[in-house]
Amino acid sequence: MIQLFQGLLPSIRLPVHQTLQRQLYRLFDVLVLKVKDSLKGIERHAISTDAWSSKNSVYSLAGIILFFIDKNWTLNELVLDVIDLDAEHAGSLMGKLVYSALRAKGAAHQAIACVTDNASTNSLMNKTLAAQIRKHEGVHAHSKSMSFTCIAHAIHLVCTDLTSHLGVIESDDHYSEVKGSNLEEYIDDEDDGMDPGLDLDFDTESESNFDEDLLEELAPELASADDEKPTGRASKGGRPKALTIIEKIHEIVVYATASPKRQKEMRQIINKTCPKDVRHLFLKKSMRIRWDSVRAELKRALQLRQAITYFVANLDSAQSRRGKSRKMIQKMQIRWNITGEEWDLGTMVVEILDPFHTASEAMSRRDAATLADVIPTFALLERKLLDNISQLRNITADRGNATARALLSGLDAALVKLQKYQTLAHENELCIIATVLNPRFRLKYLTRWPELHSNASTVVSNIFENYRVKYSKATNTLANSVPHQNPQKSSKTGSAWEAELYSDVPLFVEQFDQELK
């Protein structure tokens, strides 16, 4: 590049890397001063932290993001710092480094909350951070009141517990690997055609093109399986040996998309068997660490049900499939046979997971604060899980198939996990305050939990008294300084979820009129 510029303009003097580095440092110093000035006008803020390491642990970093509401009641997000952990992820060290970063910007005494994922080191980090703030800032800070678990992570853990009982998804917590990715989008209108580079003249009947990779993988199980009584893979977690519909769909999708030949064959089947409104769609393949990809895979399979049924029924129709290969294919047909009852249960699985998908998107919004919706969100998801368990128990009594049994055990596990995080939310003062201050919920919303209602009443009364004393002499000033508010436009997903949250809550005006009467 230098030689190019010197050839074009011999007299030009290009800056060297030291010059760029020096200018960047100067720019950083200027921006730091501006950030400090901006933070002086903020009374309270919350932070979010997360750590990252390269695969060989050569690089280890932690990011700090600061959230605050400005004088115009607008939610702001600011990347405050990226700190070098030097391959040390101990919670105590991270807590000290986070405090140092906050103090360097003059923002340590204003921190009221630290949002993290569920990593074990974060608990110790928050304890250390709170201790440092108490010691050096003279602020009454405690880790229990400051700590807040990311609700998206909680939902991820709940859904992972549920789907792991159905197969395909691993039961371990892989949130650190998937949190940087978006959720699977709503898939009804997506155009998931095949790769445009695929050779449409590929010979689907050629024996030389017929790969048997999955056949070889399933050979031991197919060999030991009885033709009239197929068995699936035995699970370490004690799941029934018979395959669930999730496992069947996943194996079919993997097999049908394993090569360009099979993709072309499936595309032809879709065009032949499916309604016109879904012929542009193609199969989706799930990942073992993403529960929402299982939902997307199953939802797409339900849309292309006719094609999948035809594909399995005609696996042995190719002339090239003879002898041992043909026998294995016939066993695969038995293994992958999906009954009408199983398809119905597959629809139920999607309907169970849909609210969690919607909740994850609504609670991950960046245009508005969502803390006030945490307790109501857990309550709504709990109610849906209880309704699904009640409905499924009646189905299980009649059918008793593998999918129903696995789904019921998964729902029970998901309910236990969700109630664990719901309890944490009920104990978090910030969640309580945000819920009570929401005019659609207020203190009355919490009456369904008597102990929580009592605690909330005490907390809010104390806050009110503190503010009454603090601002009693500044009433006129505050009254005249109320900013003009421009209400944020809710996203489509956020609006839909809010509508469901508020569906059983009367409007504020209605509540007020009832109380006046």
From TrEMBL:
Its main location: nucleus. Signal peptide: none annotated. It is found in: Nucleus. GO terms for cellular component: nucleus. This is HAT family dimerization protein. InterPro entries: RNaseH-like_sf (IPR012337), ZnF_BED_domain_contain (IPR052035). PANTHER family: ZINC FINGER BED DOMAIN-CONTAINING PROTEIN 39, ZINC FINGER BED DOMAIN-CONTAINING PROTEIN 4. Keywords: Metal-binding, Nucleus, Zinc, Zinc-finger. It comes from Rhizoctonia solani AG-3 Rhs1AP. It comes from the Eukaryota. GO terms for molecular function: zinc ion binding.
